[in-house]
């Protein structure tokens, strides 16, 4: 496992400085790097394409941006941190006073050492995000300021997404979706992009499983909407899904429930937490604010989508600031999240594996001695704490109702499913159970 930690770490370091947004060369470059880990396919959806109620925007290209004081000193520089520029800022080359500039400056009064993260995707605008100290400096510096943004909007551009389809034994799929649109911020969501690639690599080593996997790296919201629009018919195959985000923080594990609280995906995540010794996890009930589950769980798709996190978005003080950097997260944390995700996926695959049985004659008990399935002498046997063969038979005959898969019964009895399978086969041979 040490090896994977250092591998993850090296990818974090390479990918962190790249300026990503909802479109642009930074996204393509990031996907190309992730392609070294798994053979994902990079797809391009052209700008101007209608996707449901939305339209894929012009591609945004950013080369440089800065603010200089009247002495030519750079006070704010995009090259120091790409979080300094409001994402999708329009091009600009203008002299201005502080009064004119200040409406385009963003800083955090409650966290002055941080640069906040801001976007203006759908309204043409521009802006700079600065620390409290930079804001104060600008307030007192000599005017006029020179403000320069070397950006470009390309109507002939496109939105890039990464996709990897891993076939399963059945047509049914599990969706893993992560987003690639944030500039240099580590937990939200570089950790998710990278973990998804490494998880995909692990899944490829263990195929085939019952479910296939549809794994996508998309810009949040517009990317997920575009993906759904381009793949509407294939999405019917998806039985459940995950948004992989914020998986590298130092805090507690938690998970955001899918929209149906009682859905298997939520039960299995909790089971996996407990079995892996994580009892102190946080449950975030489904909420209408969030990530791309808003698209995947919309009426047209209604996929139950959950999200396992380690310092969930909205919940940590560095969220959406430059302080969500590589020193905040850790490759070890991402590896832990990866192992947990892998375990959950394994459990989901096992869940409906194997036959589902029902009683041939469901009324009252079967007379086991008639089938040579009951101890010769009855009467004196007390139920034992260790589950016996007879107990297994009785439980199977009691629980096999044509609905509950053997895995669910095994979980209830706290025994391996293989033990139940042997006994179920015997009861089938005796004509007491029928596979459905
Ligand atoms: Zn975010």
Quick gist of this model?
The protein is of the alpha/beta class and 436 residues long.
**CATH architecture annotation of the largest domain:** 3-Layer(aba) Sandwich
- Widest sheet: strand order? 1-10-12-11-13-16-14-15
Helix content: 25-40%
- Quickly give the structural class: alpha/beta
Can you count the helices? 12
CATH class of the largest domain, named Alpha Beta
What low-confidence regions span 5 or more consecutive residues with pLDDT below 50?
none
Distance between the termini: 42 Å
Description:
Strand 4 (59-68) and strand 5 form a beta hairpin. With 436 residues, this protein is α/β, with parallel strands linked by helices. The chain starts with a helix and ends with a strand. The chain is elongated and about 100 Å long. Strands 1-10-12-11-13-16-14-15 form an eight-stranded mixed beta sheet, with helices on both faces. A four-stranded antiparallel beta sheet has the order 5-4-9-6. It has a two-stranded antiparallel ribbon with strand order 2-3. The protein has three domains: 2-57 and 157-352, Zn peptidases (Aminopeptidase, 3-Layer(aba) Sandwich); 61-152, Glucose Oxidase, domain 1, CATH 3.50.30; 356-435, Winged helix-like DNA-binding domain superfamily/Winged helix DNA-binding domain (Arc Repressor Mutant, subunit A). It is built from twelve helices and 18 strands. Helix 1 (2-15) crosses helix 5, helix 7 (264-275) packs across helix 9 (331-351) and helix 10 crosses helix 12 (417-429). The site of zinc ion has 4 residues, from loops.
């Amino acid at each position: 496992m040490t090896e994977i930690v250092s591998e993850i770490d090296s990818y974090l370091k390479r990918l962190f400085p790249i300026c990503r947004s909802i479109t642009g060369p930074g996204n393509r470059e990031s996907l190309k790097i992730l392609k070294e880990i798994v053979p994902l396919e990079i797809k391009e959806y052209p700008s101007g394409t209608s996707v449901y109620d939305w339209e894929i925007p012009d591609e945004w290209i950013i080369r440089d941006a800065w603010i200089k004081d009247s002495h030519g000193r750079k006070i704010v520089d995009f090259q120091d941190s790409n979080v300094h520029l409001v994402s999708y800022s329009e091009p600009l080359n203008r002299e201005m006073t502080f009064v004119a500039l200040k409406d385009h400056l963003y800083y955090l009064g409650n966290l002055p050492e941080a640069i906040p993260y801001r976007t203006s995707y759908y309204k043409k605008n521009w802006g700079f995000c600065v620390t409290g100290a930079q804001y104060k400096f600008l307030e007192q510096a000599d005017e006029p300021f020179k403000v320069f943004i070397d950006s470009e909007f390309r109507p002939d551009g496109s939105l890039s997404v990464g996709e990897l389809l891993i076939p399963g034994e059945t047509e049914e799929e599990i969706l893993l979706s992560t987003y690639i649109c944030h500039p240099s911020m580590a937990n939200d969501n570089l950790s998710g992009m990278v973990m998804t690639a490494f998880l995909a690599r692990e899944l490829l080593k263990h195929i085939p499983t019952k479910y296939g996997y549809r794994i996508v790296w998309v810009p949040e919201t517009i990317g997920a909407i575009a993906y759904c629009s381009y793949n509407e018919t294939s999405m019917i195959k998806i039985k459940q899904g995950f948004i992989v985000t914020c998986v590298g923080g130092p805090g507690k594990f938690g998970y955001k429930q899918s929209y149906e609280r009682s859905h298997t995906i939520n039960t299995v995540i909790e089971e996996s937490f407990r079995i892996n010794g994580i009892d102190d996890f946080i449950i975030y009930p489904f909420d209408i604010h969030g990530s791309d589950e808003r698209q995947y769980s919309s009426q047209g798709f209604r996929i139950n989508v959950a999200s396992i996190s380690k310092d969930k978005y909205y919940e940590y003080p560095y969220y959406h600031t430059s302080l969500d950097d590589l020193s905040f997260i850790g490759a070890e944390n991402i590896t832990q999240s990866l192992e947990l995700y892998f375990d959950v996926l394994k459990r989901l695959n096992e869940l409906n594996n194997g036959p589902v049985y029902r009683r041939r004659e469901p009324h009252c008990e079967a007379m086991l001695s008639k089938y040579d399935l009951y101890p010769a002498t009855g009467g004196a046997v007390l139920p034992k704490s260790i589950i016996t063969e007879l107990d297994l038979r009785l439980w199977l005959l009691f629980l096999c109702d044509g609905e509950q898969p053997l895995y669910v019964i095994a979980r209830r009895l706290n025994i391996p499913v293989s033990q139940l399978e042997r006994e179920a086969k015997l009861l089938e041979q005796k004509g007491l159970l029928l596979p459905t």
